[in-house]
Amino acid sequence: MQRANVLGKREKEVVVWVEEIKDGKMSPTTQPGCYRAPTSGFNSKLPSAWVPYAELMRIERPAGLYAFYFPYLIGLAYAACIAEPVVPSLEHVVALSGILLVWNIILRGAACAWNDNMDQDFDRQVTRCRNRPIARGAVTTVQGHVFTAVLCLSLIPILTLFPASCTYHTGAMLFLFGLYALAKRVTYYPQVVLGFPFAWAIFFCCAALQVDPFGPRVLLPTVSLFAANVLWTISYDTIYAHQDVRDDVKAGVKSMAVRFAHSTKLLVVMLSIAQVSLLILTGWLTAMSPAYFVGACAGTAVALGSMVVRVDLSKPSSCAWWFHWQFWFVGGSMVSGLFGDFVLRTGFH
């Protein structure tokens, strides 16, 4: 009788999983206990012992990399626009963007490894996350910490390519990323905490181009752009968190998706209005060209508005789609507006 009850419960769970897959609420590869070794893509070419570490770095999941990289592109373009008296060449800015891509692949890997280690108990209770390497036992807690340390140390050779002041900004970012992993245990606003290390890329890139982000000439517009990026992170990460909101409630994970479960779209609208207003303020304070206001301000407003209207928060697949593509829509608008202004200022020189 007991065995029959267990089987009956299991059958009901399977029915629920099948229905959620049909409704787009769960991917077949995220079913509980359904880990499958990669058979295609980059990870499938690696030695089997390396695969869990590549998964820990999210090598084959580029959306998270966009979250790290786009603020650097925004910061780089912004710093190039306001740099005085030496204006960087377009070639130098492009070269730095390539270096920063490598930087962010490593930085993102370290942040993910740390986060997964801290969240392993939560991850085992969340459908989408329970097959992560540490949660499923493919990487131990100690191995995860060692791997995180190795990745952080791997940033040092790249850091030597930048001015010394970038070291302090790197330390601040690493501290804040570490703090984020703990925030969801004590506050419903971990997305706010996450926004700070992402947006700190603005300060880093200013320093990389020999611009003091806290200097009196640029302090206000730089802080305004920083704040706009914090708000952007809060918006898209709250939408992203809606993928797991039911499991998060059961597991005791705090997030703004849980806190504002029934008013997320209103929240994102308010955040988006504030974000665009801050972008306009940044442009006004730095005398940006119309290219900036059309691309970075109007383009961002349209992209954010489209996301709010079209995302279906009840479907994880919709949340995941918009999380992925909004980086290109929103982030791409900001980058194009800033780079457009930079090109107009320098005349391609």
From TrEMBL:
Keyword Aminoacyl-tRNA synthetase: no
Compartmental location: Membrane
GO biological process entries: ubiquinone biosynthetic process
Keywords: Membrane, Transferase, Transmembrane, Transmembrane helix
Membrane topology: Multi-pass membrane protein
Keyword Transferase in annotation: yes
Gene Ontology CC terms, in alphabetical order: mitochondrial inner membrane
Family per record: Belongs to the UbiA prenyltransferase family.
Protein name: Para-hydroxybenzoate--polyprenyltransferase, mitochondrial (PHB:polyprenyltransferase)
Organism: Heterodermia speciosa
